[in-house]
């Protein structure tokens, strides 16, 4: 019997390798890392800066890899917005995941006024440092920074111009997690507005990249989220 698929959508500046640290804890699943153009295995392709174009790209990747009705979608930060949008797109095709898991993001309409992608390089780097998204050896090496800067700026634009509306509400369960020192962690229940199904949430210790400190806990939540709702889907 084939394993359920777990589609993983990366954060700003991430790629298909961003979640490899979780692989040992997710052996129950076939992991399907999704990657936007301009980095990793797709480094020769042109970067995307538009949210809806990025969502279409991710949607096509999911559709091409999908081989089972039993699948989950997970997204961190920018990937969380894409998880919501792509799930909505799949539902319009009468396809739906068992559920979605979103981390490092309090949901649509919370940070809609931020336009960090428009900042000059110096101020933009300060914002990235606050999030802890890049190691200091990258931020302090101009050659590496020159490589990552266009990718980060493109991804921040995707994220900050997501334009997700309330018609993005989906019919599958959402499980949301954030780090306790993240901005807007107190608004994590905002995600409940975007599902007509079950909603659960949890706040763990850490900053925006708390997931790296809790791989086993996160994997257990993903696995339980699947098992809690796969039965419901079979019965419906």
From TrEMBL:
It comes from the Bacteria. One of its GO terms (biological process) is lipid biosynthetic process. Residues 5-224 form the Thioesterase domain. Belongs to the thioesterase family. This is Surfactin synthase thioesterase subunit.
